[in-house]
Write a structure and sequence with these properties.
seven-stranded parallel β-sheet, Rossmann fold, alpha/beta, EC 1.-.-.-, globular, 9 helices, oxidoreductase activity, about 250 residues
């Protein structure tokens, strides 16, 4: 039976790969993102699209209204929107503390607040039983990200997922996190990654290769399956062995 699947950040990278996997199974997919033109060009057969800034409460209310009208029930909710903020407008100040405040605020807004607002807005629409809430975190939640802000924001998803698992478990709904390592073919690094950095990241793995959006999408698809119905409150790392499980 076809399910209703909502994917934030669904126009590119991991979100797009996940959308393609679910659509191929016959599920009805709704792609969310800030850039309407990117969503429209995603090319996922039969997918609905809705452009919104998920860090804005009013725009999230718009998403919730759209879901109520077009889908009704949400079977799978996947949060893949996020990033380090490097594509955001820079801080308009030369004060180093202003830069710190901007960086941390942007990272928490992009990676944590967006997920929390969308989840809370749609929580009552999750299928009961059988609903799935899935968050895309990062290896940075375990080993840092250089500035601290991105890794801290992604790490914040973990206890939120645990709390949701406790809250929603009695309704037959699971909540889990997937934490990828280095994944190629995304917009995460902006332009091309520095070759030396890529070599180091691949060298950290046991598999000797970079991850792909499809690697993460396949894990998300399994966690959304009936076979994973007793898996909840977990963080599944997809990083080729670059970081041990915890």
């Amino acid at each position: 039976m076809a399910r209703n699947v909502i994917i934030s950040g669904g126009g590119t990278g991991i979100g797009l790969a996940a959308a393609q996997v679910f659509a191929a199974e016959g599920d009805r997919v709704l792609l969310l993102g800030r850039r309407a033109e990117v969503l429209e060009k995603a090319g996922v057969p039969g997918a609905l699209t809705y452009a919104a800034d998920l860090g804005d409460v009013d725009e999230v209310r718009g998403v919730v209204g759209f879901v109520e009208r077009e889908l009704g029930t949400v079977d799978v909710l996947i949060h893949s929107a996020g990033g380090t903020g490097q594509l955001e407008p820079p801080v308009d100040s030369s004060d180093p503390l202003d830069a710190v405040a901007h960086n941390w605020t942007v990272n928490f807004r992009l990676n944590l607040l967006t997920a929390a607002l969308l989840t809370e807005g749609l929580k009552e629409r999750l299928a009961s039983p059988g609903g799935r809430v899935l968050f895309v975190s990062s290896i940075a939640a375990y080993r840092g990200s250089g500035s601290g802000a991105y890794g801290a924001a992604k790490a914040g998803l973990h206890p939120y997922a645990h709390d949701l698992a406790r809250e929603l478990g009695p309704r037959g709904i699971t909540a889990n996190v997937v934490a990828p390592g280095y994944i190629e073919d995304t917009e995460f690094f902006g332009g091309a990654i520095d070759p030396a950095r890529r070599e180091r990241l691949v060298g950290d793995t046991s598999t000797g290769r970079a991850g792909t959006p499809g690697d993460v999408a396949a894990t998300l698809h399994w966690l959304a399956s009936a076979g994973a119905g007793h898996v909840t409150s977990q963080v599944v790392q997809v990083n080729g062995g670059a970081e041990r499980g915890h």
